[in-house]
Amino acid sequence: MADxxxxxxxxxxxxxxxxxxxxxxxxxxxxxxxxxxxxFTEIKSLVDASSTTVSRRIKELEDNRLIVRxxxxxxxxNNLYALSEDGRDLSPIMQRLxxxxxxxxx
Length: 106
What we know:
Distance between the termini: 37 Å
Low-confidence stretches: none
CATH architecture: Orthogonal Bundle
Radius of gyration: 16 Å
Shape: globular
Strand content: 5-15%
CATH topology: Arc Repressor Mutant, subunit A
Number of helices: 5
CATH class: Mainly Alpha
Largest sheet: 2 strands, antiparallel
Number of domains: 1
Strand order of the largest sheet: 1-2
């Protein structure tokens, strides 16, 4: 039996590791359901998490190209966040996961 593992498994492991961190999925779903990009404070309020947690998750999601940040010049809260193209591609999968979780019996 070959010891080689399909590289796709590693990719899936990495994305699941990111998505299962506290508030990652919640942030993605909030951005997905928003009609427009959101400020940090709006995201923080909607996911009901500490500034530290939201800041870390936003950075990780941005580093993994699931969200994009747009700077607003001359604004005290100068960043807006939205799903990236990759994040939008992930959206139906996340929604199906949430639907499944609601249907799942303990």
